[in-house]
Amino acid sequence: MTIDLLAAAAEAPKNQFGFWEAMEQGGPIAWAIFGVLVIMSVGSFYILFTKLFEQQKVLNQYKDVRSSFWKTNSLKDGATKLEKNSAWRQLVDDSIAAQDDYTKMTDKMEAHDYIHGTMARSEAAINAKLASGLSFLASVGATAPFIGLLGTVIGIYRALINIGLAGSASIDKVAGPVGEALIMTAIGLLVAVPAVLAYNWLQSRNRKIASMLTGFSTALLANINSGGNVKPQVMTATSTKTAGQAAAKPAATKPATAPARPASTTTTTTTVPPKR
């Protein structure tokens, strides 16, 4: 009995319509399309993780700006508190350089515009660096489904040729090419969907960082124009906790006193005895 089962298992037909079998039937064109989609997928995930790490680094460096930068006496002292080659250090260095050129200008309005323009250019450079590579994600999300569709069209075309050569639409003639066509469509979607999601997510994080850069640039400009007198309010962890406890503590109220009752008037009647 065991020998019969082993013989039947050995004689069982192999699956001739798997993924690799379909790709082999597709030939060089199918392999080329599959290779392009794999490269696009690997590039998308590489950009996703590298840009995510870069964005998180910028966000973590902002904690140093809030905790220690504005506690210093000058911008030059504050720059030493920031990490070198960071986005926030770049803004501070550019503002210091613009402040040095500020004294060389006779027109105060032109000096203000020069500093503002310098900060805007610095912000644009940082935002451009953060956005680098996102165009590749957008291109992958837009073109990957069509590349997969190209493989689908070629697979269906090969299926029609096999039908014409065989003279009948038997399953063994069309299953391979049609399976290849469906596989290419699925791979195209699997490449495009993560790329689109990653692009939208990274873009939203870039907008958040751009807003933070704009606020920091505005604070630097106000500090320069005021001679160091204007600084944003810095809330440390201890002061924030203290402020929260003070806000949560109910205000002390004086005990309510009972309203005074009106004095009651009593009328006493005195009886005078008659004289005899």
Automatic annotation (TrEMBL):
<comment type="subunit">
    <text>The accessory proteins ExbB and ExbD seem to form a complex with TonB.</text>
</comment>
<feature type="transmembrane region" description="Helical">
    <location>
        <begin position="29"/>
        <end position="49"/>
    </location>
</feature>
<keyword id="KW-1003">Cell membrane</keyword>
<feature type="transmembrane region" description="Helical">
    <location>
        <begin position="181"/>
        <end position="202"/>
    </location>
</feature>
<keyword id="KW-0812">Transmembrane</keyword>
<dbReference type="Pfam" id="PF01618">
    <property type="entry name" value="MotA_ExbB"/>
</dbReference>
<keyword id="KW-0813">Transport</keyword>
<dbReference type="GO" id="GO:0005886">
    <property type="term" value="C:plasma membrane"/>
</dbReference>
<keyword id="KW-1133">Transmembrane helix</keyword>
<feature type="compositionally biased region" description="Low complexity">
    <location>
        <begin position="240"/>
        <end position="276"/>
    </location>
</feature>
<dbReference type="InterPro" id="IPR050790">
    <property type="entry name" value="ExbB/TolQ_transport"/>
</dbReference>
<feature type="transmembrane region" description="Helical">
    <location>
        <begin position="136"/>
        <end position="161"/>
    </location>
</feature>
<protein>
    <recommendedName>
        <fullName>Biopolymer transport protein ExbB</fullName>
    </recommendedName>
</protein>
<dbReference type="GO" id="GO:0017038">
    <property type="term" value="P:protein import"/>
</dbReference>
<keyword id="KW-0472">Membrane</keyword>
<feature type="region of interest" description="Disordered">
    <location>
        <begin position="235"/>
        <end position="276"/>
    </location>
</feature>
<keyword id="KW-0997">Cell inner membrane</keyword>
<keyword id="KW-0653">Protein transport</keyword>
<dbReference type="InterPro" id="IPR002898">
    <property type="entry name" value="MotA_ExbB_proton_chnl"/>
</dbReference>
<comment type="function">
    <text>Involved in the TonB-dependent energy-dependent transport of various receptor-bound substrates. Protects ExbD from proteolytic degradation and functionally stabilizes TonB.</text>
</comment>
<comment type="similarity">
    <text>Belongs to the exbB/tolQ family.</text>
</comment>
<feature type="domain" description="MotA/TolQ/ExbB proton channel">
    <location>
        <begin position="106"/>
        <end position="211"/>
    </location>
</feature>
